[in-house]
Amino acid sequence: MPDERTDDPGYPARQASRMASLEQLDATVPTCRACPRLVEWREHTARVKRRAFQDWDYWARPVPGLGPPDAALAVVGLAPAAHGGNRTGRIFTGDPSGEVLYAALYDVGLASQPTATHRDDGLELYGVRITLPVHCAPPQNRPTPAERDTCRPWLARELELLRPTLRAVVVLGAFGWQALLPVLASAGWRLPRPRPAFGHGAQVLLADERGGRGLHLLGCYHPSQRNVFTGRLTPAMLRAALREGAALAGLPRPSSTDDR
């Protein structure tokens, strides 16, 4: 295979199609430099750092998905946080959104521990894989449409590799929902017309045009600091969405927890 220019906008599309496993995909995603603005920002953030993280050697690369290759449930977010995943190198790790998400995953029996601080902290996910439509930290947490589209082949290949076992997807936020729909359509899941709109609690069953079982799509507000602080999304609401997704995915029913 000839050497690939990782800063070529076509790099994700060419490389993603060659990935034979999720392990290979996860090892290749961090090599990507296809979006100049995102590369500049993630590396600038790693140089400047936050005062609290001056001793950290930032990851400062694209952050791959996390979870087993035979997951029945996927959780789709937005992009890594500049001082979270971009620092730690693991999705939703080391930032306030991750604190809320992993606590909820633990409460419903989908994670081995309620906290995620670094890549070697022992965290394991059970039956669920977490991923993103944009794998680099964007300025102001706002990827451009072009950056979203350039990154799309990584997500498309990830879902294709998960396809034999994937039964449900919980989407955290409107950006992830809109980014995911065309990926699902191109992968052979039939979208209803008009296309389903995002909303917390939104739920739709997508038929499999290849003759397999359908895919349950569920909407949930993103566990951002703003949403949690204002009460738009409470921990109980997040746990309920994850429980519903797990049930639709056919995962073992977790023991009950206090939904305060």
TrEMBL record:
Matching InterPro entries: UDG_Type-4/5 (IPR051536), UdgB-like (IPR044147), Uracil-DNA_glycosylase-like (IPR005122), Uracil-DNA_glycosylase-like_sf (IPR036895)
Gene3D superfamilies in UniProt? Uracil-DNA glycosylase-like domain
Q: Name one Pfam family in it.
A: UDG
Record keywords, A-Z: 4Fe-4S, DNA damage, DNA repair, Hydrolase, Iron, Iron-sulfur, Metal-binding
Q: Which SMART domains match?
A: UDG, UreE_C
Question: Locate the Uracil-DNA glycosylase-like domain: which residues?
Answer: 64-242
Domain of life, per UniProt, equals: Bacteria
Q: Which family does it belong to?
A: Belongs to the uracil-DNA glycosylase (UDG) superfamily. Type 5 (UDGb) family.
Protein known as: Type-5 uracil-DNA glycosylase
**Source organism (scientific name):** Streptomyces silvisoli
